Amino acid sequence: MPKLIINDAEVEVPDGITLIQACELAGVEIPRFCYHERLSIAGNCRMCLVQVEGMPKPVASCAMGVNDLRPGRDGTPPTIYTDNEMVKHAREGVMEFLLVNHPLDCPICDQGGECDLQDQAMAYGFDGSRFADNKRAVEGKYLGPLIGTHMTRCIHCTRCVRFMTEVAGVEELGAIGRGEDMEITTYLEHGMMSELSGNVVDLCPVGALTSKPYAFVSRPWELSKVDSVDVMDAVGSAIRVDSRDREVLRILPCVFDAVNEEWITDKTRHVWDGLRTQRLDRPYIRENGKLRPATWDEAFKAIADKLDGLDGKRFGAIVGDLAALEETYALKELAEALGSPNTDCRQDGAKLDPALGRSSYLFNSGIAGIDEADAILLVGTNPRLEAAILNARIRKRYRADPHSLKVGVIGEEADLHYPYEYLGAGPDTLSQIADGSHEFLKTIEGAERPMVIVGQGALARNDGAGVLAMAAKAAKAMGALGKDWNGFNVLHTAAARTGALDLNFVPGKGGKDVDGILNAAEKGDMDVVYLLGADELEVDRLGDAFVIYQGSHGDRGAHRADVILPGAAYTEKDALYVNTEGRPQSAARAIFPPGEAREDWKIVRALSARLGKTLPYDSLSQLRSKMFADHPHLALLGTISPAEPAALANLAKTDGKVSKGGFKSPIADFYLTNPIARASAIMAQLSALHAEAEEGATGTDG
C-alpha cells in the first residue's frame, strides 16, 4: 500500500485511489464541484487543486492517482499540501473565474441554503473580483415536469450529464458549444425519459437544476427532517422526509450503500403531493348505497354488529402493498381470535409460501450482491419498472466490466439500459435451462457467482408454484446455489409483501387465499372481508360481502367499502418494513395523520377491544416486543438474516405444472402503482408524458 505525507502527516492508503480520496481518508476536506465518488472523473472544475512537492503547478487531486506519484529524492514518500498559500491562492483564483459569469441571485435562488457554490465561495473564495465584464446569459432548457432549469447559473461541472449517461443509462443530456458558449441541454428540448432523472437535482452543485414541483415552496431551514424508508417498491431505499407543519414538502435520498447507494426513483421523490389529496380523514359508513361520515364508535358498532356470532370461516382479511409490519401482525392476531384461517397478503396471487422456507421468497444474494455477480438470469421481470434502483445496480455492474457479465432475459423484451441476451418468452425456455439443455448455460460456463432474479410476472400466475420450482432448478443448473453464494432471488414489487410473508400472513389450515376469498364472496359464502390497504384487487368480485376498508386514500377499496376506517400513510407513523432482501427497516413519523385518521395498528387494537377480542398490547413498544418474540429476526433492524439455502434444494426437487403462456411484467405504468401514486398530480403528469412518448411524440410537436 502506498505511503503519502499529507500536510506533514504520514498516511498509508489503498492502491489505485485518487489523491482526493486519499486526502479524505486522512481526514482532510478537499473542495470540489465536478468530482463525485459514484461518477466518472471529469477533472474540469479545478476546485480540488493541491500541491504535490516537486511539481511546479498545483494538480487536480480528483484526476491524479496515488500510484502516479514518485517519492522524493531522499526516498521520502510523496508529499502533498492542501492548505498552504499556493493552494489557497489557486483555489481563490478558480472560484473567481467560476463567479465571472455566475449571476449572484442567491436571495431568490431556490438552491439557497443548500448550494455547494455558496458554501465553497464562503470557505475558499475571497470578497472581491478583478473582473468587471458583462455576465453571459443562457436560456433555460425544458427537461420535463420535474426539473426546473436556470442555465445561466451552470458552471459546467457535467455531473448531470455523467449521471444520466452512466447511472440512468439514458444518453439524453449533453453539451453543445465550446468555452463560454458551452451549454448543457437535451438537444431536442424534450423531457428526460428516465425513472431516475430527479437525482440530477441533488447532484447539481449550484442552482442550475432545481426541483420544479418544490420550487419556492420552502427554505431548508424551515423544514423538519426525519429518516425513513421508501415504500413505492420493495427495494427499501433509505430516504429523508422533509415537512413543515402538517405537510410533507419533499423527499430526498439518504446514503445507504447496501441498497440504494444515494439514488431514488422519481416516483419516490415526487409522490409527496399524493399524500395530501384524496385522503380518508374520518370514518364512513355506507347507508342506502351511499357513504356518510360517521364517528369511530358508529363505525366500530357497524362492524361489531356484522361480526356478532359470525362463523370465523366466513371472515376474510387481505393485506395491501403498503402495510407495515405492526398492523399486519395485529390484523393476523385479530383474524385468529375470530377463528378465521382466511388471511392473505398476496394481492396479485403470487404463488409464494413461507412453508417452502424463507429463502424461497427472498432476494437471497442481497442487492449489493449484484456487484459481485458474473451472470444474471431475469425471469418474468422488468427491473427497470419494478425496481429502477436495482436495475441501475445491474447497469453499474455491467459498466464496471462489460465483458465479465452475461445477462439473459426470459419474459418480455424491454429496454433495460444494458445489453442482454433474449432467451425466450416463458416456461419452455426456463425448463430448458433447468434441465441443462439451453445454450445460455454454455455462455455462462465458468461463472463463479451466477444469479437468478425471478419477478412477480412469473409467480403471479396460476402456474406460479411450478415456475418457482423450475426457477430453483434453473438456479441449481447455473451453479447459483453454492456454499458461499446463494444466487436465487425473488424480486418483489410490494413493500409490504416480504414482511407479511415473514409474519406468515397466508391462509391457515383450510383457509382461502385472495382468489378463494373473492370467489367465496361472489358466491355468497364469505360474509365479511377486511381490506387493510388492499386496492389492487378486482373489487367487483366482492359480491354482497360486507367490506371493511382500512387505509389512507380513497382508492378502489374505499369505493367498494361498507365501512371505512381512516389510517395513516407511511410518512405519518413509526413503522417497520421488510424489503425484498429480507432486511427489516424503520420508517419514522414525519407528520401526524389528517383529521380523525389514526395509526393502523391502533385501529386494529381498538376494534379488537370493541369485538371483545382485545389484543394483548396497548403501546407500539408492547406490540413490537410480542412480534419480536414470535419472529426474532425482525428485531435486527438494518440486518439481513440469511435464509436456509437447503430449502431451495428441496424446492428444486419438486415438480409443478406450468402453462405455455409467456411471462409479463405486472407493472403497466411505473408511475401509478399504488393509491398514493394514483392520488398524485405529479405522477399523473409523468404518466401522461411517458404515454405520449411511447405513442411516438417527440415532445417538440406544437
UniProtKB/TrEMBL annotation:
One Pfam family for this entry, by name? Fer2_4
The protein's Enzyme Commission number: 7.1.1.-
Q: Which domain of life is it from?
A: Bacteria
For this UniProt record, give its keywords in alphabetical order, as a comma-separated list.
Answer: 2Fe-2S, 4Fe-4S, Iron, Iron-sulfur, Metal-binding, NAD, Quinone, Translocase
* 4Fe-4S His(Cys)3-ligated-type domain location: 86-125
Q: Which InterPro entries match?
A: 2Fe-2S_ferredoxin-like_sf (IPR036010), 2Fe-2S_ferredoxin-type (IPR001041), Mopterin_OxRdtase (IPR006656), Mopterin_OxRdtase_4Fe-4S_dom (IPR006963), NADH_UbQ_OxRdtase_75kDa_su_CS (IPR000283), NADH_UbQ_OxRdtase_ferredoxin (IPR054351), NADH_UbQ_OxRdtase_Gsu (IPR010228), NADH_UbQ_OxRdtase_Gsu_4Fe4S-bd (IPR019574)
The record's section on NCBIfam families has: NuoG (TIGR01973)
Name by which UniProt lists this protein: NADH-quinone oxidoreductase
Q: Which organism does this sequence originate in? A: Methyloligella solikamskensis
The gene for this chain is: nuoG
